[in-house]
Amino acid sequence: MNWFFKATVFKVMSYLPFGNTVYSFLQNNLTRSLLVTRSRLLQKAEIGNLYWEKFEELGVSKESLKTHLDLGSGWHPTIPLLFEAYGVKRQFLCDVVPIITPATFKSTQSIFNQLVGEGKICKCNPTPPNDRELGDLSEIMSVHGFSYHAPYFGIGSDQSGKIDFVSCTQVLMHIDRPQLIECFKEMFKALRPGGWFICTNHLFDIYSNTDKSISVYNHLRYSERFWRTLVNSKMMSFNRLKSRDYRELLELSGFEIIEFHITHGDEADIKSLRSLKIHPEFSSRFSEKELSEKHLYFVARKP
């Protein structure tokens, strides 16, 4: 699908009274993007294991990782289920708006336990059986030590200094810069001294995932005004920030950056980048190397 047409559809739907309902219907019945599948679960679990292994590499005691906040849990709470299997006792699942449903939670858990039983996720026991009725999400989650916060705003004050670690997986790119600094401050407040913030995030044009006719750097062609007015919407937002922006915001929020890994494009990507007319708002601020960034992975700590 043409990327600009897709963005326009999101824009129009964001103004409709029942736009979110229509969007969810299309995702469930047309694009099937909300469907819980083994492959999607395995991909998410792989990232969760990456986080867990990083803590082992840093020499972090697992006994100190008992309270977890998952920022942007999405429809399928795979990573919280994985951390539950690893012994994390209390978890806060956070989204901007309510997304998880009783049905998606239970179907995720069912497939998760199947994959654990097959030895394809981790060497751990399946999560406990959940026979709660589908009607009450909070009761279903309580069996696992989970609570759901959507919107999550205010959780920093509610859980001030109580969270051992925060994880965030491919979500920060959807948060505008002014909201992002507030989000980082919220996470900083929620963490205990010595608590951890671990994250993976895409830096390339996410519309290129579905529109193969555009470059992974297509987003660099447009001004902030064009992007804000004609592309971004309440339903779909892409902030186009680079790694330097994220580092600055983390440091402004008080975090100590422990690791900061950037993946750049390959030769074909660089060729594609050089073929584009980059908007001066980007070309005047960033080097070619910075513009070629595609992925970010960082580990930060509250002193």
Could you explain the architecture of this structure?
- It is a single chain.
- The protein is α/β, with parallel strands linked by helices.
- The chain has a single domain, classed as Rossmann fold.
- 42% of the residues lie in helices and 17% in strands.
- Strands 3-2-1-4-5-7-6 form a seven-stranded mixed sheet, sandwiched between helices.
- Helix 8 links the parallel strand 4 and strand 5.
- The mean pLDDT is 91.
Percentage of residues in strands: 15-25%
Spell the H/E element sequence: HHHEHEHHEHEHEHHEHHHE
Mean pLDDT: 91
Amino- and carboxy-terminal Cα gap: 46 Å
> What do we call the CATH topology?
Rossmann fold
Approximate shape: globular
Low-confidence stretches: none
The major β-sheet equals: 7 strands, mixed
Ordered list of secondary-structure elements with their pairings:
Elements lengths: L2 H13 L3 H13 L6 H20 L9 E5 L6 H8 L4 E5 L7 H16 L19 H6 L3 E4 L5 H4 L4 E7 L7 H14 E12 L21 H8 L11 H10 L3 E9 L2 H8 L5 H4 L4 H4 L1 E9 L2
Parallel strand pairs: 1-2, 1-4, 2-3, 4-5
Antiparallel strand pairs: 5-7, 6-7
Helix pairs in contact: 1-2, 3-4
